């Protein structure tokens, strides 16, 4: 966990604490925006005012990945960015036995987060926008399906919410971690997946302090179980049970029929242009914006332009 107390000695002033936090987590919102869900201890950010926009990160990132977009969008919306259970500043999960099923846990926590925000924080029950990246994509779409009428709009960033398109293969290094327990154990021991992601996931390199901030919640082996489990839960084929969570049969309308903005980093080694084209085929109504010089973390590489597009989308007609 993050601490702003640098050892023993005189108590830090508010200015000293803010300086220490900026050094540890450059660009991350101040603690006055930090919240926790009482029932679960899940950490989330709460910035701005207006209609709610829920930002769901992927693996191995956390709410830190949204900091640039939150800065741009919080003047225009109530921006809520949770750390999924086991990630970031949320409570870390106990080691899973056998093949993990993190989807159920994550969906239950999203239900409790929404209930808390409506009941205790005065947010509307409906009229939400979901901003989805990586693993947050299937989670957000599955959550919208189990909560019909709550979500009004979708922002899609380098993710998937349907069975893999024909000919697509999960990259070999993810298959190795997913399918071979000894490889998964080695990656878990070294934090290799997260260390690689913060370099390979961007086209424009992060500053060293930003890379350290991304990795800080996973400094100890006991704090990275969710990272490894999420890779092990990647669907193997189109018959994988996880896809049933995304089956829109009977949904009226299906979440993917909602107004949609797609912002896509074209240099993503995992969610390749082939996946984007499947989004465009399935959702011809979507406004698609391709960023040729952005990688997997499109919100890092194209923050200014993507933030402006999302701002206009939030202010446009439903």
What would your notes on this structure say?
With 318 residues, the chain is α/β, with parallel strands linked by helices. The chain has one domain (33-315): Rossmann fold. Helices cover 37% and strands 14% of the residues. It contains twelve helices and eight strands. It has helices at 14-24, 67-73, 102-121, 136-146, 172-179, 181-190, 192-200, 208-215, 225-232, 273-282, 298-301, 303-315, and strands spanning 34-36, 43-47, 52-56, 78-82, 128-134, 151-159, 260-265, 287-291. It has an eight-stranded mixed sheet, sandwiched between helices. Helix 10 links the parallel strand 7 and strand 8. The chain is globular, with a radius of gyration of 19 Å. The model is unreliable at 3-8 (pLDDT under 50).
Quick summary of this structure?
With 318 residues, the protein is of the alpha/beta class. The chain is built from twelve helices and eight strands.
- Average pLDDT, all residues: 90
**How many whole angstroms does the radius of gyration measure?**
19 Å
Percent in helix: 25-40%
Helix-strand sequence: HEEEHEHEHEHHHHHEHEHH
Content of β-strand: 5-15%
Q: What is the CATH class designation? A: Alpha Beta
Which stretches are low in confidence, meaning pLDDT under 50 for 5 or more residues running?
A: 3-8
Q: How many helices?
A: 12
* Alpha carbon gap, first and last residue: 39 Å
Tell me about the biggest sheet? Answer: 8 strands, mixed
Kindly report the CATH topology: Rossmann fold
Sheet with most strands: strand arrangement: 1-2-4-3-5-6-7-8
């Amino acid at each position: 966990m993050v601490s702003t107390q640098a050892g023993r000695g005189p108590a830090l002033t508010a200015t000293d604490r803010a300086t220490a936090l900026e050094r540890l987590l450059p660009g991350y919102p101040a603690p006055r925006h930090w919240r926790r869900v009482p029932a679960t201890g899940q950490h989330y950010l709460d910035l701005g005012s207006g209609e709610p926009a829920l930002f769901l990160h992927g693996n191995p990132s956390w709410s830190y990945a949204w900091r640039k977009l939150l800065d741009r969008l919080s003047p225009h919306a109530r921006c809520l960015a949770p750390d999924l259970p086991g990630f970031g500043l949320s409570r870390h999960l106990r080691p899973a036995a056998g093949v993990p099923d993190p989807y159920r846990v994550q969906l239950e926590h999203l239900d409790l987060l929404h209930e808390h925000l409506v009941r205790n924080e005065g947010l509307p029950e409906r009229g939400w926008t979901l901003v989805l990246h990586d693993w947050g994509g299937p989670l957000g779409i599955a959550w919208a399906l189990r909560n019909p009428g709550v979500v009004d709009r979708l922002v899609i960033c380098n993710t998937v919410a349907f069975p893999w398109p024909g000919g697509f293969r999960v990259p070999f290094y993810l298959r190795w971690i997913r399918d071979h327990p000894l490889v998964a154990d080695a990656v878990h021991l070294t934090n290799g997946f997260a260390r690689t992601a913060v370099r390979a996931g961007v086209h424009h390199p992060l500053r060293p302090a930003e890379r350290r901030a991304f990795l800080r919640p996973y400094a100890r082996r006991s704090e990275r179980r969710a990272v490894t489990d999420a890779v092990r839960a990647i669907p193997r084929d189109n018959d994988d049970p996880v896809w049933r969570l995304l089956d829109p049969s009977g949904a009226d309308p299906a979440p993917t029929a909602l107004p949609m903005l797609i912002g896509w980093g074209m240099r993503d080694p995992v969610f390749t242009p082939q996946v984007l084209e499947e989004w465009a085929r399935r959702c011809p109504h979507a406004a698609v914006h391709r960023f040729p010089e952005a990688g997997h973390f499109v919100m890092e590489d194209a923050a200014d332009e993507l933030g402006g597009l999302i701002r206009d989308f939030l202010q446009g007609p439903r």
